[in-house]
Amino acid sequence: MHHVDRNSGILNSEETFSPQDRRAYQEHFLHEVVAHAYASGTPLKKAMDDRGLTPGEIRKLEDLQKLPITKKTDLAEAQKTNPPFGGYVTVPISQLVRIHQSPGPIYDPVGKVPDYWRWKSALHSVGFRPGDIVVNTFAYHLTPAGHMFEEGVSELGGAIIPTGVGNTETQVEIMRKLQVTGYIGTPSFLIAILKKAEEAGIDPRKELNLQIGFLLAEMLPESLRKRFADEYGLIGRQAYGTADVGCIAYECPQVSGMHIHHDVIVEICNPETGEVLAPGDPGEVVVTCRNKIYPLVRFGTGDLSSIVEEPCPCGRTSPRLSRILGRADQLTKVKGMFVHPSQVQKVIDSHPEIARARLLVERPKDQDVMTLEMELKGSAEEGLLAAVERTLREVAKLKGAAKIVPPGSLPEDLKLIEDVRKWD
């Protein structure tokens, strides 16, 4: 079994910028992106005109605070009134390679440029190397994750096997026969694959060549990371990004936070006021990327984190994000997919028998489980549970259970989504 060094080396000189050089680099592309977005007539132009601002006044990183934060809901509303992209895209359709859809719904354009989503540096930092054979277990239909990670692996010099979601037995067989070295997907699906291998009498440490797991879209508890290493000899590292802006930050072998990509400006803001917070204070991750095709300036991800500025022994000099601490709203990620409170409400509204309900999200045995707990207006008709579960799957695109609970048993201050998962 051939092993490679997955812990040393830095791919890009930009990852070792001095603070002064990083500021100069980012302020240069910030002005370029803002000027291009303004000249192209994107919604940023109206926002700036309303504030009496010109592109010449947005040159320093601190100048970003003069501009409003754009939320996911703003994107969805803009695309609804001005399809297909709400006026944010600055190139003709002929210069796009794909259009994806993420929850909202929001349509995500992909430009015809190398490493559009910026995952190449992240993949190298977490341990992928040229020549790796990688199973990519993210979906390839509608949502962008499957394609964006394939693009990054290809840019780095690896080969992708687009296995997509599910088919655990097939995943094991492919890993064994092709001696796959890398995995991309959720941590819960990786542990499910390894368990399936053991159930089939396959020793993952001896019969598989799996060495590196790029684990995204879910929290990675340190206990599970340790289990991957101790039981399976497997490196498990994380990165952070969104369907709207691509890669934002990524771990290195020190696993002491996630280095912010050099082509991304991150502000940590008070989710209620938009005020930029001090390093170390938790708040919403707000990003501005070096992307003139789809220039999202001050895009509010809705995710909560904080900035770590202490030097990292790996040699990368960028500030880091601490772990993702949760959401600024009730939006919740289950099995790597966002579930909106509005989706839960749609399920409730589809069944008039339901008086009150909440979606309970739990994580027994390292697997996300969601259950719609329902108080009914009267007695349950035959087939109600099955009908609600069908609706839940149709609306959320995820399988979940329905459960009837006694009237009055749900809390008074009911949340449509109650996430009780623990990440110890």
Write the layout of secondary structure elements.
Blueprint: H1 19-39, H2 43-50, H3 72-81, E1 96-102, E2 106-111, H4 120-126, E3 133-136, H5 145-156, E4 159-161, H6 168-178, E5 182-185, H7 187-199, H8 204-207, E6 212-215, H9 222-232, E7 235-242, E8 246-250, E9 258-260, E10 264-269, E11 283-289, E12 299-305, E13 307-308, E14 320-321, E15 326-327, E16 332-334, E17 337-339, H10 341-349, E18 354-362, E19 369-376, H11 384-396, E20 401-404, E21 417-419
Parallel strand pairs: 3-4, 3-5, 5-6, 6-7, 18-21, 19-20
Antiparallel strand pairs: 1-2, 7-8, 8-9, 9-14, 10-11, 11-12, 12-15, 13-14, 16-17, 18-19
Helix pairs in contact: 1-2, 4-5, 6-7, 10-11
